Amino acid sequence: MLSLNIPAPRVASARLALLAGLAAAMLGVLPGSGRAASAAEPASANWKPSKPITFIVPFPPAGINDVLARTLAQRMSNMLGQPVVVENRPGATGNIGAEAIVRATPDGQTIGILNSIHAVNAAFYRKLPYSVTRDLTPVAPLGESPLVLVTNPRTPYKSVPELIAFAKANPGKVNYGGPTSYPLEMIKTMAAVDITNIPYKGSGPTINDMIAGHIDLATGPLLEYMPHVKSGKLRLLAVGTTGRLKSLPDVPTIAEAIPGYDITVWYGLFAPKGTPGPVVERLREATRTIMNDPEVRKHMAELSVDIAFSQSGSGALSSRLSSETERARGIVAKTGAYLN
């Protein structure tokens, strides 16, 4: 029998090479290296920022958002090998800074801290140049702060029931200020009282005007208001949590006078939509490591920031963002308290 020595077609060789490559990938072997990829070295571990990272804070310096950002930035710089520069961009109830994050190149070089105000803004503003749920990538939850309701000591009410009674007897005469109107719009709706909103860019100007007697009420994170309460310049009426705080057992909750009231301030790290998955994961890993550092945990406790939320993952942050927005839309539908 005649034996023919015919070379294998090139296409077959190509197929064999492709199959070999796929098999190598499935087995975790790096092509051409002869060694398996280490499970301890995920793709995210290979990402390194190529230049300083910009960390946007949509609020003025010295507030809790700023403190959280600078705590992360200092340590993140050491972990990623590039400076992390905090940039405050306050204004429009946090929308200016949030839009700056949205418009940034999605390469991991720009990140930012957002909080529950941004979920509320999506409901209170008819027109926003961005969508907080569609145009941002949740990186990592950071923590929560108790909300407090404070007033100028010269006001005649010393409790939430007294505030409600006064507001009902004097429609439109009680005013409130702050970077967001949502917490007091909830009081306005749930207690059926007529109180007037005066918008502010941040907690600092709000506190100054309240001490000066220009506004009557405000709500905000515990950390930002307690020094002024302790000095006697402001009066603490209640906290927004469902139960009384261990650190302030004698201070009632708003819910004791208005059943169902429940607001805490949460904080999260975000990146522009389209930021590559390995980059997001590297930032997430760095954030989780930082938030688990004993020194940071102690510092957060001193700031009255509960970091349990930081252990819940980016899915929980996304869910919290969506649910808070929907609840705010329900309030706006009842009050018509749009900001534009």
TrEMBL record:
Pfam families cross-referenced by the UniProt entry: TctC
InterPro entries: BUG, Bug_dom1
Family: Belongs to the UPF0065 (bug) family.
UniProt-recorded name of the protein: Tripartite tricarboxylate transporter substrate binding protein
Lineage, uppermost ranks: Bacteria, Pseudomonadati, Pseudomonadota, Betaproteobacteria, Burkholderiales
